[in-house]
């Protein structure tokens, strides 16, 4: 049996520049009041409000009996939560305190994927709405389909603005 090794009592700590910059700059929380007055800001608020309508109109029905509506629910709730997250990031100007993240690329990927998946979900939603399926839920599903297409167009607009921002950033 080997004797136990003596323990070292030396503790070494290191600090990265990332944590030093983050702690130094996060003492005050900025608020960008003007963001909501821009077209991308208005589109984000519209995406949140109408996205909420999309998933609540479906959630109030027996959507779980039909897999197509489960897909629409997933896309609607997933992007609703992420859009709120990004709105908070833009409103609090968090992107200025974390410069290591390529925010223009992240915004383009987010809005582009939201546009594509919401377009698919809106088409699935619209093609799944029939009076024969369940006439009790017909109006809710039809309304959710309409609002899904409106939200899709909002994400298309934000994808365009994200692309313009990304392109101007990469050309510099």
UniProtKB/TrEMBL annotation:
InterPro entries found in the cross-reference section: MAL, Marvel, MARVEL-CKLF_proteins
GO cellular component, one term: membrane
GO MF term list: structural constituent of myelin sheath
One Pfam family per UniProt: MARVEL
Keywords, ordered alphabetically: Membrane, Transmembrane, Transmembrane helix
Transmembrane regions: 39-58, 64-89, 101-121, 141-163
Membrane topology classification: Multi-pass membrane protein
Alphabetical GO biological process terms: myelination
Entry's localization field: Membrane
Boundaries of every MARVEL domain copy: 35-167
Name of this protein: CKLF-like MARVEL transmembrane domain-containing protein 8
């Amino acid at each position: 049996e080997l004797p136990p090794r003596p323990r070292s009592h030396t503790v070494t700590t290191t600090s990265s520049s990332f944590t030093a910059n983050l702690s130094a700059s996060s003492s005050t929380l900025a608020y960008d009041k003007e963001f909501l007055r821009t077209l991308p800001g208005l589109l984000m608020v519209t995406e949140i409000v109408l996205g909420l309508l999309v998933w609540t109109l479906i959630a109030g029905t027996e959507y779980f009996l039909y897999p197509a509506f489960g897909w629409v629910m997933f896309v609607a709730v997933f992007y609703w939560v992420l859009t709120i997250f990004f709105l908070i990031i833009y409103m609090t100007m968090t992107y200025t305190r974390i410069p290591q993240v390529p925010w223009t690329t992240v915004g383009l990927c987010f809005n582009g994927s939201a546009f594509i998946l919401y377009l698919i979900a809106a088409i699935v939603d619209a093609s799944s709405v029939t009076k024969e399926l369940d006439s009790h839920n017909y109006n809710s599903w039809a309304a959710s389909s309409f609002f899904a297409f409106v939200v899709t167009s909002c994400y298309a607009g934000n994808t365009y603005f994200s692309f313009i921002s990304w392109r101007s950033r990469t050309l510099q």
